[in-house]
Amino acid sequence: MSHRLYIPGPITVSEGTFRAMTQGMIGHRSKDFVTLYRSLQPGLQRLAGTTDPVYLSTSSSWGIMEGALRNVVAKKVLCCMNGAFSDKWLDVARRAGKEVGGLRFDWGKPVDPAAVRTELANGQYDAITFIHSETSTGTLSPLAEIMAVVREFPDVISIVDTVSSFSTVPIDKDALGIDVLITGSQKALALPPGLSFLSVSERARARATTLQGRGYYFDFLEFHANHEKGMTPSTPAISLIYALQHQLAQIEAEGIKTRYARHLRLNEKVRSWGKTRGFSLFPEEKYGTRGLTCFANTLNADLEAVNAALKSRFNCVIDGGYGKLKGKTFRISNMGDETDETIDTLINALDTVFSELGA
Ligand SMILES: *Cc1c(COP(=O)(O)O)cnc(C)c1O
After folding, report:
1. Among candidate residues 333, 330, 326, the one with its CA nearest the CA of residue 164
2. Domains of the chain and any CATH numbers
3. Is the peptide bond preceding residue 193 cis, with omega within 30 degrees of 0?
4. DSSP code of 230?
5. Cα 307 to Cα 258: distance, rounded to the nearest angstrom
6. What is the pLDDT of residues 246-284, one digit of tens each?
7. Distance, CA 359 to ligand 1 centroid (Å)?
8. If I label 252, which of 16, 141, 245, 338 is the partner at 20 to 30 A Cα–Cα?
9. Which residue lies with its CA nearest to atom 15 of ligand 1?
10. Predicted confidence (pLDDT) per residue in 27-52, tens digit
11. Cβ of residue 156 lying under 6 Å from some atom of ligand 1
12. Is the CB of 9 under 6 A from ligand 1?
């Protein structure tokens, strides 16, 4: 039994996307595959704001997040931490055997560029990780300002996670000087899980050539050598790539600017609904991300009861808080293919349920 998912990933996949996945298999070394692979590059590059290749990885985002560390960290990596996903990056770097330092902010606070400068200035670091849109707290960090600071340190390779911001707001990888941009399939792109995307600068590839222990599956040089041939290093999730092709065509048809405007409008709609009901945004307003909304559960609503009612009566589900914020916050996604109609439907259901529960 599947419900309509308004959780921030995985999100609801459209019928058109599912239909695209039913196309017949092709060999991943065939001409048809090369044509398919190459047809995806312009759309992906436009969304990433880059002329660098965008490699396709058959893995969830954590695969390439870990892989990126193995490819670029020679000395020490600085992990900016302001929520569950960014916090985990410190642990992943340690497990990959890397020297690591953590720059911690309270959950719900954005990454502070000045603090990044102070930390990088100690000269120990040759890489940095941070998350553009920290999905666990709904917080959007100031990408351009952080990247301006990172660029003051030419030896530092930047790895930026855009899993819940990619295609919801403009991202200009090349203009900002981002070295490794990472995103996944099941959030902003509204595909099923299983595929992730990384765009790697020449600088970052040059770093990779100097490093041992890159492994095979996530090796930047393998990705690149295969990319040149219009292929992936190993057999990819071809059905998901069909889905991606469909979704990129949809994005093209809608228009990227219209897509950004839709996300902004739907996000504002969710925010203003919450405010009307008396909930405040968990992060400061101006740092609220645009593909989802994280509310502080200021009215102390019973979120498990809310979701039980949403599921059984309205066939949909929201998120009742991530990790240590479970029960204290709730999150609503407006990523992917949501429309005014689907968001209105959810809001009406939420109004009914919250009113009945007296919140
Ligand atoms: C969901 C998410 C991830 C992890 O993605 P997986 O697909 O589970 O590997 C990483 N970063 C952010 C910001 C996310 O929202």
Report:
1. 333
2. 4-10+255-356 (3.90.1150.10), 23-252 (3.40.640.10)
3. no
4. T
5. 31
6. 999 999 999 999 999 999 999 999 999 999 999 999 999
7. 31
8. 141
9. 135
10. 999 999 999 999 999 999 999 999 99
11. no
12. yes
